């Protein structure tokens, strides 16, 4: 009886996976095999192999790498400090709160902050620095995207640090290891699973961003996500847009498989 109930409980889960994961992916793969006129073809994949789309792919991976790198550089020290502070749950809540705000609202907030007459340029003028063109630059795109994704990097690293056995650190100190050696040989290796989870949570969605590239960088930063949006909404070439989406899905799957291969030492 219990097995029957478990199978019944799993039905909504499998229906959800089939309807909202598997079928949409199959539909995208199906559309990728047709050109703008509706004729069956593999030309979309040949077009993707041209320098224009390959350069766009490299650009997408480069910016996703930059965002992930800066998120990790900020998130790891932040998560480490959180584990050693009082009221850590309150601080964690304050870090998570911005994720409850709509992404579009946060993006428009940064447009106001970085605008020609925004608060940032007002501070510059107060110190005698001429107004700077902050919007529609590579810097603004990386900065805003990093800000948006930082909580998703902090959370898994914080959880990994919280699960760390303190006796291992004390044992390292008793054996004469310095703080730097303890971090390098004990703390960091045992929190690699958290770093991997955070990297996946940041790098994969950063590959396919399109709204921030349009609003913050003014399309100076062109990613695969931007190309998908353009093909579906502007050129109406759903086949090419679907082809780029298929390539992104495959790339994301490879990244997830590569990052989830071997468990860290903390397991």
From TrEMBL:
BP terms from Gene Ontology: transmembrane transport
Location, primary (coarse class): membrane
Transmembrane domains' residue ranges: 12-33, 61-83, 90-119, 139-161, 201-218, 238-259
Membrane topology: Multi-pass membrane protein
CDD domains the UniProt entry points to: TM_PBP2 (cd06261)
Entry annotated with the keyword Transmembrane: yes
Any one annotated GO CC term: plasma membrane
Keyword Transport set for record: yes
InterPro entries the UniProt entry points to: MetI-like, MetI-like_sf
Domain ABC transmembrane type-1 per the UniProt entry, residue ranges: 57-259
Domain of life: Bacteria
Cellular localization per UniProt: Cell membrane
Entry keyword set: Cell membrane, Membrane, Stress response, Transmembrane, Transmembrane helix, Transport
Family: Belongs to the binding-protein-dependent transport system permease family. CysTW subfamily.
Protein name, UniProt field: Putative spermidine/putrescine ABC transporter permease
Organism: Brochothrix campestris FSL F6-1037
